[in-house]
Amino acid sequence: MAGSLPNPEYLIEALRFKAEQLGLELLGITQPTTPPHVTTYETWVKQGRYAQMDYMATERNRYLRVHPEAIMAEARALLVVGMRYPNPQAIPPPPSPYPFGRIASYAWGKDYHYIIPELLKELLKELEAWLSAPILARIYTDTGPILERDFAQKAGLGWIGKNTCLIHPRKGSYFLLGEAFINAPLPPTPPFTTDHCGSCRRCIEACPTQCILPDRTLDAGRCISYLTIENKGPIPRDLRSSIGNWVFGCDVCQMVCPWNVRFALSEGSPAFAMRPDIAFPNLIDELSLSPMDFKARYGNTPVMRARRRGYLRNIAVALGNSADPDSAPHLGLTLKNEPEPLVRAHAAWALGRIKTRLARKHLSEALQREPDPDVQIEIKAALEDTD
C-alpha cells in the first residue's frame, strides 16, 4: 500500500462518520507499539491476579501484549472503536414477588463478538473504496492478546478509570471495544493524557467483593464478573454471599461512577439489539432450564460463555442469597435431579442459607443418596448452617 494518504484528516473524519452510522460511536487511531501500562500488566501477572485465566500468563500472550507489532508484521496503524451498550439502570427491577437475578447490561443483547468484527469489516470496506486499494487487517474484540483499553487511551477515546474501565469524558464507560490492525498508514489521533478520576473512590468502595486494587487493576479471583463467567468451578464459599443476585457479570463499579451517572445514555448502540426479558431473570424458573432451554433462551448472547452448569451454579447462589423459603422445593428438586455436581453443590449451599425445616429435610435426604464427595461436603456444611 502506498505510504501517503490524500487529506488524511478528512479521511479520519469520514471514517468517524461512517463508524457512527454503523453503530460504532467511538473511533480513534494509534500505532501498534508497546502500550503505556505494560509494567502494570506484567506486575499483575507476576502477582497471580489472573485467577484461573492461565491464558493471560502464557509466554506467547505475554510477549504479544508487550510487543503488539509482532501480531501483524504489515500493520501500520491500529484502528480502535467503541460500541455503546445499554445503561444497566435503563430497565428498572421488576415489581414482582418472585426472587430475580441480574445480568450485566452488556449481555442483554446479541453477543458483541458477533457484532463488532462484522461492523469493523464494513468500515474497512469503505476505507478500501476511499483508498482504491485492498487492506490487510487483523480484527479483535476482547479476543486477542492485546491491552485494548491501553490502545483506546492511546487513540484518544478516554482514560482508564480506577475500576479499570475506559471512561469517555462526555459519554461514560458503557462501551465495548474492538480493534483492527491494518496496513494502511493512517495518522494517529491525539492520545487522551488526562485522568479525571481525581480523589473519587466510589467504585472501589462500592465493589461488593473489594476486588479493585490501588494500581487500577483487579484481583480477578474476587471479581463477580470473573466468578460468574470465567470461573468454571465452584464459587469460593466466603465470596458467595457478596455476589448478591448477580447471575452473569456485574455492573456495580460502573453504576456508581459519576461519569456514568452524569453522561451515560440509557440505550445502547443501534447495532445492539437489547432484549429486556434477559435483564432480570426469574431465579426459580431459571433453575429448571434444561440444556435445550438454556440454548434456546441464551443462544448468541454472551450468557452462553458461562455454560449451563456455570449459569445454574450462579442461579443457585442468588437463590441462597435471597433466602426465599418458597425456593426450597425447587432447590430440593435440583439437588435430587440435576445431573451436574457443580449445580447440586451450590443448590445445597442455597438450602443451607434458607434455614427452614423443609430445607433441612431436602438436605438430609440428599445426603443419603449423593454419590459425589464434593457435593457431600457442601450438603454437610449446609446442614451445619441450618442447625
Q: What general form does the structure show? A: elongated
| Helix fraction by DSSP (H/I, runs of at least 4) | 40-55%
Number of strands: 8
Query: Which class do the helix and strand fractions yield?
Result: alpha+beta
Question: Spans of 5+ residues with little confidence (pLDDT < 50)?
Answer: none
Q: Proportion of β residues?
A: 5-15%
The count of helical stretches stands at 18
Oligomeric nature of the chains: single chain
Overall pLDDT metric: 95
Q: How would you characterize the largest beta sheet? A: 4 strands, antiparallel
Distance between the termini: 74 Å
Q: Strands of the biggest beta sheet: in what spatial order?
A: 1-2-7-4
Computed over alpha carbons, the radius of gyration is: 23 Å
What series of H and E elements makes up the topology? Answer: HEHHEEHEHEEEHHHEHHHHHHHHHH
Protein name: tRNA epoxyqueuosine(34) reductase QueG
GO molecular function: epoxyqueuosine reductase activity
Domain 4Fe-4S ferredoxin-type: 188-217
EC number: 1.17.99.6
